[in-house]
Design goal:
Layout lengths: L9 H23 L4 H4 L3 H19 L11 H24 L9 H33 L7 E6 L3 H12 L5 E7 L8 E3 L2 E4 L3 H9 L2 E6 L6 H13 L3 E4 L17 E2 L16 H7 L3 E5 L4 H11 L5 E6 L2 H14 L5 E5 L5 H11 L3 E4 L6 H6 L1 H21 L4 E7 L8 H27 L6 E7 L1 E3 L5 H10 L4 E3 L5 E2 L1 E3 H14 L5 E4 L5 E2 H11 L10 E3 L18 E4 L5 E5 L5 H16 L3 H11 L18
Helix pairs in contact: 1-3, 1-5, 3-4, 4-5, 10-17, 12-14, 14-15, 14-19, 15-19, 15-20, 16-18, 19-20
Amino acid sequence: MAYKIRILPRWLVFLLDLFLVCFCLFLARALKMNFVWSHVVIGLKSMTAAVLLVNAALFYIFKSYAGIVRYTNIEDTSRLVMVNAIAAFFYLAVNIFIFHSGNFFTLQVVTINFFITSFVIISYRLAVRYCFQFYKLYSEGEKVQRKKVVVYNASANGLHIKNVMNNLPNGDMQVVAFLDDSLSGNGKLVEGIPVYTTSESNIEKLKKEGVDLLIFVNKNIEKEKLNALVDNCLHYGIRIQQVPAMRDWLNGKLDTQQLQDINIEDLLEREVIKIHNEAIYTELKGKKILVTGAAGSIGSELVRQLLNYRPSLIILCDQAETPMHEFMLEVQEKYKNANIKAYLGDITDRQRMEHLFEVYNPQIVFHAAAYKHVPLMEDNPSIAVMNNVLGTKNLAELSVANDVEKFVMISTDKAVNPTNIMGASKRIAEIFTQSYYRSMLDLAKEDGTQRITKFVTTRFGNVLGSNGSVIPRFKKQLEKGGPITVTHPEITRYFMTIPEACILVLEAGVMGQGGEIFVFDMGKPVKIADLAKKVIRLAGKEPDVDIQIVYSGLRPGEKLYEELLNNAENTRPTYHEKILIADVREYNFADISKRVEKLIACAKNHYTMETVYLMKDLVPEFVSTNVAYEKVNQAK
């Protein structure tokens, strides 16, 4: 029966260490004198007294006896070696200045004694440590069945995590292997732990040996390789978790309860587009910047990134009071010196927006405010027009009237060949701002105006983790035990992360010279059904066994596949291979302005079918997949 092993008193460890150094001195003398007893005992009492005094003082000063023997680590052994090295110099000094003789602590005896003492003292500590681990493994085996885990990779961090895991009191995990492709070939050992490459055959082998979990210490790995490794682990039923950043460890210590499931965002099958453009800093530093929709997922991340470029003022505009309040608290806590102003207002309220521009006079506008949920906009087309078209029109006209340098609008891939009200409303906003800019450019050429507001549009796909996006919905459904709902088995979407989307918006704001629609390399489209299955497996469950996947059918206005360009559009390259400029059809602003005014007037009266007909008139490629608007598709 297992019982609790008491920790040895410090004084007992102190005395044991003193006994061992004396014994090692005797052994060193015996070796030097070829075990001739009559020679060994000469001066032995005086030497023993000197050794006791020197080592007692050094043990006390360096606290070498204070460590818990069963938890001896490299730091403890290094301290012991250092104590022995200092003691050796003291022996030589004692030999010269006290005994005035070379026959006591000779260089040979001191050297032999150093190695024997270091070996004996360190060995007994390690022996106690491994005996204790052996005792725990077998005496507590019935109580705690340790889970076999593998760590990626065998770096210094990986070794640290291995030591933490394997030495945790009452720990329930045992690191039995490393995965690391940088160490060529299998069969190598690091601190006695085997190292394998990340091949599928090795994953299968580890599973057969009882491995249940793969722990990522860091994910500095190509996305393609990361996805392949994760897929192989999930295929063989090995769960995947990651270690939190060391700053997040509780009281500086890691507990297995702190391990986190890997984020699906990390498994995008594409490399993140990274921008390192010094011009962003030059363009934004010291400027007054307006961000609409600032309390939303995209707008708030934009603000966080803008703060890194030291603008003189950021105006946060949003009509959502509670999210705005919460975001303001976050910014004030994390960015204590930031100059920010919260401005509650509806972008469709012309007078309120006029007040904003008059009071703060922004120099750059990032327009992120929009209604974006497809099903809601299908049922409320007039509201989609009011917010996405009228709101954009108000901000665009006020930007020009107040000499804003640049207006950056955030659009969506749903504006391409739109099949829903939301996408059509965003496309109309694109058409209005582009044609408006072209008309100002023509006027500037006629009257010689040097400076006009530059309008730039960014167009990208779905953003992982944004409010209302598919991943948070899947996670909430998973927490409730399922089912997870997917509209169609074949539905696909492009994805990028929120920080990546926002840095691209900032880059477009700097790169754009006016009138461009920037589109980004979104990589390969992802099947939503595959995404749902991966989310379930990452949580350690099996799709359609533990958590059901239910196909609910395409919603009104929803596309099966998204597009970044329509059939009539081509692209031009930029300095960055993954950032392109779409060549889109140009419109006459006078005509567009009249038709947009007519559309807005109709939307203000909330005439549903008439509003949709006028949207179709402005965007001929708009073909609704909503049964309620089938008649509109026949309009010319």
